Amino acid sequence: MKADAMKITDGVYWVGVHDWDLRDYHGYSLDGTTYNCYLVFGKEKTALIDNTYPGSSSQLWGRIGDAFEKEGKELKIDVIIQNHIELDHSGCLTEFIKKFPDFELYCTSKAVTGLKKHYSAFENFEMNVVKTGDTLDLGGKNFTFLEAPMLHWPDNMFSFLAEDGILFSNDVFGQHICASQRYDHELPENFLIKNAQKFYANLVTPSSPLVLRKLDEVVDLGLLDKITMIAPSHGQIWTEPMKIIDKYKEWASGECKDKVTFLYDTMHYSTKKMAHSMMEGLMSGGIEVKSCFLHTDGRSDVVTDVLNSKAVFIGSPTMMNNPFPSLGDLMYYFTSLSFKKTGYQRKAVVFGSKGWGGGATKKLTSDLEGAGFDVIAQYDLTYVPTEEELDKCYDIGKEIAKQLKDE
């Protein structure tokens, strides 16, 4: 198919793929995404950075052909830099080995193992293993490689193009956005940062200590002041690198707002009434409140708000001596994300309505503590809350607001 490449700077093009229709990715809800691939023309060699899902390469080939036509060069890929082996980054590698069997492939040692396991065509393919500080010269276009294990797979790496100051950061600094525009400044800033925050919350949170160490390493290598642009594998290209770097520092270090995220479900509206009264108490104490109704709201959006909240309020009715099912999914996800690794232990309040013996509050408290939250209050009541009980919910909210403000 015909598709236009977009020139980023002299000899560097975006040749990626729009996935307009994707709505779920690893359980992450989204409104489409891009698989960003980049083509770099040196005087001696041409390199492609990453590729795309199997079956979605027609856009990629169309853009590659357009870029070569714009450069007035014969179509030939000499080098593939594989920053990451996940299928949305490596899925059409076998197409390239068929068309350009002599290309050179650069990746980390962990990527070698993964590529051989994913694709039989690479079982006997000689790959160039790189480590942090290693370089590659295309002829006037020089790359420096940085290993980035567990950001977010063991094989990840960054590639820095020295002459143009472009950091090809792979998944780090990405957003699942599918837009016709390519740059950060072409979209509303609030929209962009919110999507970057969602990406971080769902995919990078468990690696927060590694984020801080990697940023320190970039400084130690003398690269930070040289980065003029960050080109991630999904979403928009950052022309103001410090805007997203500062956000990553904030999220990785656990910097939170005076904010509480409510996560609750309800059966006959009693838990909902409790939640609303607690919200009023918090707001009266000057705390920002975000309400997430788990009957409809998805977990990937929920944890986006948890990332910059000082506390969560978890509400559930008791059903067969346990929390409502929608809470169970969220607790499992909390455990996987390890918010405690961001350097700040978020507070938690557990509440809900029961019919007789209860059980939801106790189970949720145990789950939250296991996920690294500090449960500072619990309150459950029987059946429909009275006005006096709703007043108590308000007072709980107001007291927690005071505690959070006094931190």
Automatic annotation (TrEMBL):
CDD domains xrefs = flavodiiron_proteins_MBL-fold
- Check the record and name the PROSITE patterns matching this protein: FLAVODOXIN_LIKE
GO molecular-function terms, A-Z: electron transfer activity; FMN binding; metal ion binding; oxidoreductase activity
Keywords of this entry: Oxidoreductase
Residue ranges occupied by any Flavodoxin-like domain in the UniProt entry: 260-401
Q: Which SUPFAM superfamilies match?
A: Flavoproteins, Metallo-hydrolase/oxidoreductase
Per the record, the domain of life is Archaea
Supply the EC number(s): 1.-.-.-
PANTHER family, A to Z: ANAEROBIC NITRIC OXIDE REDUCTASE FLAVORUBREDOXIN
Q: Which named protein is this?
A: Type A flavoprotein FprA
The encoding gene:
fpaA_1
